[in-house]
Each structure stands twice: as structure tokens, then as C-alpha cells.
Amino acid sequence: MKHITSRDNPLYKELKHLATSSQARRQAGRTLLDGVHLCQGYLQYRGAPPLCLVGEGAVAHPEVADILAQCGAPPTQVIVLPDALFGALSQVEHGIGLLFVVDTPQLELPAALTESAVLLDNLQDPGNLGSILRSAAAAGIKQVFCSAGTSFAWSPKVLRAGMGAHFVLTIHENVDLAALMRGASVPVLATSSHVEQTIYQLDLRQPVAWLFGHEGQGVADDLLALARHRVMIPHRGPMESLNVAACAAVCLFEQVRQLEN
Amino acid sequence: MKHITSRDNPLYKELKHLATSSQARRQAGRTLLDGVHLCQGYLQYRGAPPLCLVGEGAVAHPEVADILAQCGAPPTQVIVLPDALFGALSQVEHGIGLLFVVDTPQLELPAALTESAVLLDNLQDPGNLGSILRSAAAAGIKQVFCSAGTSFAWSPKVLRAGMGAHFVLTIHENVDLAALMRGASVPVLATSSHVEQTIYQLDLRQPVAWLFGHEGQGVADDLLALARHRVMIPHRGPMESLNVAACAAVCLFEQVRQLEN
């Protein structure tokens, strides 16, 4: 273990920049996993991280000690920080002082859309994105494709809301969704409140790709036109739409219900 | 219309306090509805507000003008503010400058739980609470009961996420959920990941009450013990749980599916 005690340490300054700047994270292709739960998930599904940061007060914590034992040798570098320095890197209030610094995946696009997937067009809210990733992972979806306008999937807020879903999914970002949809060999379904067909009328026991859009404006018209089916979730009350993450959960678990029954 | 131009105006100071302090809102029994969408919803379902605030730059906006025409006479007081003063009251960035100040409902508890409802135990996140209220309203639920530890339903963040659901629901706060459950004449269902029975095995064509809990800890054990059924949502992937608002959406719309089919 290495100790850093000064705010002027060059590595600490680099980490602080990474912790506080979304642009820095995108440019470096690196992000921070904040807290025990996310770090455990990373270890389980992705293995040892390049860099592990621990607050002095957390070194003896049993869950942290267990994680350090798993990644306390090269290639992982473990750095211990005074709690005040650690706190400036973490967004979790009253958390246990543990952070992994990991590389965000650089992925090749698959040649075609051939299995069940989630497509996200211009989705804005980090909490919604994380919730959708979590629902997709729980529903057995493996592939997620995000348009260039969608929130950065590897930001600390999205990671926290995803609760580890990032590590079991393949998340493609900056994807040309129109091109992907044109070449898809599975039907793409988009939800809309202006159609008659309901999700319950579709046969979802086959692979399908679900397309969800912007919180206010929904899916862009050009993409909606490329979808094989436009479907709605029937409502019984006066409210005409759901939060997009709630909508995604209903759709993905209707597919689970049909597959399980 | 009345104009306020000074930050030192006593009414403006009172409004600023209301806009920035959750405690002030609870004490006054008043809250702010921020933006055109929420104000339209309030007018549609609850009628004219006691107080309407408009930024100078928004007075001529067609949607705002339409709303002012509907509530521009007593008992509504309309106050026009310079945009800088208005901005300090609003949490919506780049919004259209319109706010209603309204009384939060003071409700009597119904004698017993006799119809479909949502019960929330210690739910923390305003976005989750708003999303659940929106899903409940869309699923045709009319009654929501929140424990004392649950986020304040009438805070600006919850109102924004609720997208008007507040105005079509009856939301009881600070409720003793254990007492309510003991006297319930409809079955109370709680979701749990440690049980065998799935939501798809239940007959949901009758009224039921759904109990959802804290984001991290779930429903408290004493309440879980009082639930008629503990049920799970089957998963197909390695993630073991959903975001609570996603979970609520899946449950509430499984009930809608059974009722509609």
C-alpha cells in the first residue's frame, strides 16, 4: 500500500480532476466506482481494478479489508488517503471510504442487432439511465446501445443508480441508432402513447429490442418511424404517461413474464 | 396583477423562505408548483390557486397567458416579478417563469384500507417517490399512504417527478402503516427477494394494497410480517433487485394487465 498525504501530490491532483470533471473522465477513459457495493460488483464480474483508493478510517472495516485482500497485489495499486483527502474524491455522503478507479470499456459495435437489447435515444437523467440498466440486467438483457445525446453511462451518478448492472451488461455509447435499427434482425419495439397496440398483445417470447427516449420528448420521430412496432402500456387513471425508467421496467418485465410462463 | 420589484418586500422574503426551506413549507402547509405543466395540472384537477407568480419575461408567453386568463381574478392573487427575483424562487433551469403557491392538503385518515392503494415505508429519494406517485396515478390507484420517515410528498422535487400525479391522488403522510395494515380489509402485498411466490401467481383482479420500502433496506421487518403475501418479481439475469420505483411500476402494471385482460 502506498500513502498519499498531500493535496499537491500529482497523482492526487489527477484523481481529483477525474472525480470532479465529467469531461476528464470521458477523455481519460477512466471513472470512479464509489463505495463497497460497486467495488464488490466490479471484483465479481470484471476482476481486479488498476487502482484502489481507501480512506484511512476505512482500512480496518471488515468489508473493505476483504476487498483489499482480493485486490491488494499487483496489478492493483492500493493507495491510502487521509479521510479529508479521500472525502474530496467521493460523492457518497457518510459512505465507507473505498473507491476503485477503472477503465471504461472501449467497445466495437456488433455487426448487427441479433439478440434482445435496450436502445436509448437521448435519455437525460442519470438516475433514469442507471435504473434502466439495473432493470435490463435483472431481466436478462445483455446489450444496451446509447445514442450520442444520452447521458454518459459511466458517470458516478449513473454507476450508483445502476448498482452493478454496468458490470454484467455490454453498454455501447455514441451509437448511430438509426443505422443499428436498419440492420437489425430482431424486431425493434418503441413505446408511444398515441397507438392502439398494447405490450400485452405482442409475442415477447422471441428476442426483441426495446427503444426508449428522452424524458420530455420521447423517441425522436425518425427513429420511431424505423421501429417495427409502436406499442403502448394501457393506463387506468387520468395520467397519460410514466417516467421512462418505470415504462422500461414494465416493458422488460412483461417480456420476462411471457418467457417464464 | 401586482408587481413586486424589491428583494426587501416582506411577501417576497416570505416566498423566498418557502422556496428554499423544506421546514418552512411543512410548517406553512404551503408549497410551490414550478412550471407550466404542473400549474396546468393543478388548474385542471384542483382549480385556481391562492397565489400565482410570473416572471416579467414570461407574461406574454402564450401558455402562461392562457393560465393567467384562467386564474387572473380573485381568489387568485397574481404577482409579477423581475426575472432575477423570480429566478431565485424557481428550481427549474431555463424554465418558463411561472409558479403557483398552493396549500398542501390536510387530510383525515380513512377509517380503513378498503380499496387498492400504495403504502410507502421510509422511502427516501424524491425522484423515486415522484415516479411511484406517477405510476400509481396511471394505474388507476387513488390512495397513497406514506410513513413518517418517507420523503415529504409535496416538495418541489417530488412534485416535478410526479408530473401532476399529486392532483389526482389522495396522499396521506405521517401514517402509522402498522395500524393501517392491521385494520385493512384488502390484502396487503409486499415485495421481497427472499420468497418463492411471484406476482404473476397472484389474482390481482381484486383490490390490493402494495407496500414498498426504503431504497437500501427494503420494507421494515415488522411491516413485512403484517403483509398478507410476500411476493417477488422473477429475474432472468444476475442482478438480484430492481430500483424501488421500477419494482413498483412492474407490480402496479401487472395488476393493470390482469384487470384489462
How does this structure look, described?
The structure is a homodimer of 261-residue chains. Chain A contains ten helices and eleven strands. The first copy, chain A, has helices at residues 10-20, 22-28, 36-46, 62-71, 83-87, 126-138, 156-162, 177-182, 221-226, 244-260, and strands at residues 2-3, 30-34, 51-55, 77-81, 98-103, 117-120, 143-146, 170-172, 188-191, 209-212, 229-231. Chain A is of the alpha/beta class and 261 residues long. Helix content of chain A is 36%, strand content 17%. In chain A, helix 6 packs parallel to helix 10. In chain A, helix 6 (126-138) links the parallel strand 6 and strand 7. In chain A, the strands form two sheets. In chain A, strands 8-7-6-10-9-11 form a six-stranded parallel beta sheet, covered by helices on one side. In chain A, strands 1-4-3-5-2 form a five-stranded mixed beta sheet. Chain A folds into two domains: 2-103, 60s Ribosomal Protein L30, Chain: A (2-Layer Sandwich), CATH 3.30.1330.30; 117-260, SPOUT methyltransferase, trefoil knot domain (Alpha/beta knot). The interface between A and B is large, with 44 and 44 residues.
TL;DR of this structure?
The structure is a homodimer of 261-residue chains. The first copy, chain A, is α/β, with parallel strands linked by helices. The first copy, chain A, folds into two domains: 2-103, Ribosomal protein L30/S12 (60s Ribosomal Protein L30, Chain: A); 117-260, SPOUT methyltransferase, trefoil knot domain (Alpha/beta knot), CATH 3.40.1280.10.
